[in-house]
Amino acid sequence: MATNKSYYDILGVKRDASDDDIKKAFRKLAAKYHPDAGGDEQKFKEVSEAYTTLSDPKKRREYDQMLMFGGIPGADFGGSGGRGRYTYTTNVGGDWSDIFNNMRGGDGGFGGFDFSSIFGGAGGARAANRPTKGSDLTMSVDVSAEEAFRGATRKATYRVPSTGEEQTLTIKIPAGAVDGGKLRYRGRGEYGTNGGDRGDLVITTHVAEHPVFKRDGADVRMELPLSIYEAALGATVDVPTPDGTEVRLKVPAGTQDGKTFRFRDLGAPNVKRKGSRGALFVTVRVKVPTMLSKKERDALAALRDADTRDYREEVMRYGTKR
């Protein structure tokens, strides 16, 4: 190593260079001087020694302190102690042939730096020969709301990109399947290389909306229309459930629009908790008739005139005071 050059000079970076700047500089010089790429082995040793020190925060601090006192650490390569005021040996516990062999084997040599990422060679060849798992393949399947509630099976055919072969499997759509849910079939994806395992086949379920039931995971929500008479007087109503049965709801007299009733375990099966189900939430929607016969209008008018309740008391207290 030249006695008048610091490690920063060798890498061509400033004293305040960031870790990323140092790594980029080393990457460029290593690709240029690496022996496997026909470069200068001595130059490669120099840039490697510089990187080993400057890429390690503790060694870099010590090195900078030595520079402050006027020395040029590393000027006496190998630590013989003859030419410089300070010596600074960074060969990490082995000779250079060992380090080169490690790098060629894809094992790095300087702080875990992967030389196979910047040039081809024996290390890259060995990495290329390692067993590699195949990539995952993806596809989607459309499911009706009823199929999602009760579960279903579906045959699907897909093509493996690397070979072009078509493969068929039976998809088991679980009861309680949700829109956007994932079904993973292990070992049914792309083929691996060098004896590596196959990837997986990942299937996304797209569940159609139901005209009555709305999903919230395993919970199911629905709206139940009631007439103003049923809401006012109370009623007993048979309500459908997702599994095709009915449940009887007793609506209390005076039920208001937006009132929600909860039925435990009458929602959809919970795919995350086998054997359990969500709840069914029934929200009342009071319907006001839009067309009245003369008889109905007269009857309602009589009820209105006889009604002495103040329905807007809470609102009118904030009105203009006269």
Automatic annotation (TrEMBL):
<dbReference type="Pfam" id="PF01556">
    <property type="entry name" value="DnaJ_C"/>
</dbReference>
<dbReference type="InterPro" id="IPR036869">
    <property type="entry name" value="J_dom_sf"/>
</dbReference>
<dbReference type="InterPro" id="IPR002939">
    <property type="entry name" value="DnaJ_C"/>
</dbReference>
<dbReference type="InterPro" id="IPR001623">
    <property type="entry name" value="DnaJ_domain"/>
</dbReference>
<keyword id="KW-0143">Chaperone</keyword>
<dbReference type="GO" id="GO:0051082">
    <property type="term" value="F:unfolded protein binding"/>
</dbReference>
<dbReference type="GO" id="GO:0042026">
    <property type="term" value="P:protein refolding"/>
</dbReference>
<protein>
    <submittedName>
        <fullName>DnaJ domain-containing protein</fullName>
    </submittedName>
</protein>
<feature type="domain" description="J">
    <location>
        <begin position="6"/>
        <end position="67"/>
    </location>
</feature>
<dbReference type="GO" id="GO:0005737">
    <property type="term" value="C:cytoplasm"/>
</dbReference>
<dbReference type="Pfam" id="PF00226">
    <property type="entry name" value="DnaJ"/>
</dbReference>
<dbReference type="InterPro" id="IPR008971">
    <property type="entry name" value="HSP40/DnaJ_pept-bd"/>
</dbReference>
